[in-house]
Amino acid sequence: IHTPYFYNIIVNNSSQSYGSIAIDTGSNAYLLNNTIANNYSGIASLMVNGSFPLIKNCLIWEQNDIFSLVNGAPSVSYSCIRGGYNGTGNLDTDPLFHNPSTGSGNVFNGWEASWILN
């Protein structure tokens, strides 16, 4: 079985349900070095359903709930997560993006923003 690895900048997505990522039954993904920010959803930014993904060294900075957990839970370490999250080395400190979009969702242009850190 292959484990999917993701290295992305996921910003300014909109959905009435999940804003950026849905990790479903048995897809125990490994999210490494991702920036997930300013997405908008009616429920949460990352849906974890029947999976146990590993999230490491990620910046997850959202206005709404970060996780919706259904029969699963991520293992998060060395990540910066708004609101905090249990795990080794996690922070709840503003990452100070250089020039992020001014709001959440696809009505704000994430392409013109700068997601590097000051």
Number of helices: 0
Helical residue percent band: under 10%
Strand-residue fraction? 35-45%
- Low-pLDDT ranges: none
Given the helix and strand composition, which structural class is it?
A: mainly beta
Order of helices and strands: EEEEEEEEEEEEEEE
Major sheet details: 4 strands, parallel
Lateral strand order in the biggest sheet: 1-5-9-12
Radius of gyration equals 13 Å
Overall morphology = globular
Oligomeric description of these chains: single chain
First-residue to last-residue Cα separation: 39 Å
Quick rundown:
The protein is an all-beta fold and about 120 residues long. It contains no helices and 15 strands.
Quick tags:
118 residues, mainly beta, four-stranded parallel sheet
Task: Explain what you see.
The chain is an all-beta fold and 118 residues long. The protein is 0% helix and 42% strand. It has strands spanning 5-6, 9-11, 14-15, 18-23, 30-32, 35-37, 40-41, 44-49, 54-56, 59-61, 67-70, 75-77, 80-81, 97-99, 114-117.
SSE blueprint and pairings:
Layout: E1 5-6, E2 9-11, E3 14-15, E4 18-23, E5 30-32, E6 35-37, E7 40-41, E8 44-49, E9 54-56, E10 59-61, E11 67-70, E12 75-77, E13 80-81, E14 97-99, E15 114-117
Parallel strand pairs: 1-5, 2-6, 3-7, 4-8, 5-9, 6-10, 8-11, 9-12, 10-13
Antiparallel strand pairs: 14-15
